[in-house]
TrEMBL record:
Name this protein carries in UniProt: Copper-binding protein MbnP-like domain-containing protein
Keywords: Signal
Domain Copper-binding protein MbnP-like: residue ranges: 34-233
InterPro entries the UniProt entry points to: MbnP-like_dom
Length: 266
C-alpha cells in the first residue's frame, strides 16, 4: 500500500511540474521583442548535392550540366502558432539566391533581422517579382534593380526580371553538350509567372532576442525538369525565355521544388 501511495505521489508531482512548465511557456512575454531568422537555401538534385559541371540525368534519356544557377525570392512572411503573420518589410523583402555565392556545403544564407519574437509554424515566399512590385516602376525598385541588373537577372525594364537563370548544356541520344538556357520570368504585365510557396515547419521556429533559428530550405532542381510536367530539353525546353507556354510550365514545376529539410533553434 505504501508503494502505491508513493507511486501516486510521484505521478502527481510530475503532472504538476509539467503543467507548471507549460504555464510558464504560455505566459512568456514577448512584447516588443525581436530577433533574427536565418533562411538557409540548399540546392540539390534528388538526393544528391548540386555541383556545377556535374551531369545529372532526367527521367528521359537526356542529361544536363549547369554553370549558372540563381533565382529570386521575395515577399517572405512567417505565420505563428496563433495564426498571426509577420511580413518582412517590403523594401528589403527581395533576394537573389545564387549557387555561386554558397558556402563550401553549397548553402546560401539569408538573414531576416528584426523579426517579431514568436513561435512560428510556417513560411511563405514568392518565386520572382509580383505585379504590385513591378508596377512601382523602375524608380520604385530601390537598390534591387541595380543588384538584379548586375546579376544578369533582367532582360530589360519593359520586359522585366528573370525569376530564375539556369545556364549550361544538355545531351540526349542525338546531341551532346548543346546550349541550355532557362530564364523563366513574367513578361511585363502581359504574362504573370510569379508563384508563391508555403511550407510547414517540421518543428516550431522560436524567434527570440537571444536565439537565431535557422530554417534549412531545400530546392530540388530535378523537379524543374521532371515535376508537375516532365519537359524534353530537345523539344523546346532547352531555350526558355519569354514564351507563354514554356515559361509557365517551368514556373509551375519550380514552385513545387521547395521543402523544409529541418530547423535549428539556436
Amino acid at each position: 500500500m505504501k508503494i502505491l501511495k508513493y507511486t501516486f505521489a510521484l505521478l502527481l508531482c510530475a503532472t504538476l511540474s509539467s503543467c507548471s512548465s507549460d504555464d510558464d511557456s504560455n505566459s512568456e512575454d514577448l512584447t516588443g521583442q525581436t530577433g533574427t531568422l536565418t533562411l538557409k537555401f540548399d540546392n540539390g538534385v534528388g538526393d544528391q548535392d548540386f555541383i556545377f559541371g556535374t551531369s545529372y540525368n532526367k527521367s528521359s534519356a537526356e542529361s544536363y550540366k549547369l554553370e549558372t544557377l540563381k533565382y529570386i525570392i521575395s515577399n517572405v512572411r512567417v505565420k505563428d502558432e496563433n495564426g498571426n503573420t509577420f511580413t518582412y518589410p517590403s523594401a528589403d523583402n527581395v533576394f537573389i539566391v545564387d549557387e555561386a555565392e554558397g558556402n563550401n556545403a553549397g548553402e546560401i544564407y539569408i538573414d531576416l533581422d528584426n523579426v517579431d519574437a514568436a513561435n512560428y509554424t510556417e513560411i511563405t515566399f514568392g518565386l520572382g517579382i509580383d505585379q504590385d512590385r513591378y508596377a512601382l516602376g523602375a524608380e520604385g525598385q530601390g537598390d534591387f534593380l541595380t543588384q538584379a541588373e548586375e546579376a544578369g537577372m533582367m532582360w530589360s525594364w519593359a520586359t522585366g526580371y528573370r525569376f530564375m537563370r539556369f545556364d549550361g548544356t544538355f545531351s540526349s541520344t542525338t546531341v551532346t553538350d548543346e546550349a541550355l538556357n532557362i530564364h523563366m520570368g513574367s513578361v511585363g504585365t502581359s504574362l504573370d509567372n510569379y508563384r508563391e510557396i508555403t511550407l510547414q515547419f517540421p518543428n516550431t521556429v522560436r524567434v527570440r532576442e537571444t536565439t537565431t533559428p535557422q530554417v534549412h530550405i531545400v530546392a530540388d532542381i530535378a523537379k524543374v525538369f521532371d515535376g508537375e510536367t516532365s519537359v524534353e530539353l530537345s523539344n523546346g525546353y532547352s531555350q526558355v525565355h519569354t514564351d507563354a507556354t514554356t515559361t509557365t510550365v517551368i514556373a509551375n514545376n519550380f514552385q513545387n521544388a521547395f521543402s523544409v529539410h529541418h530547423v535549428h533553434n539556436e
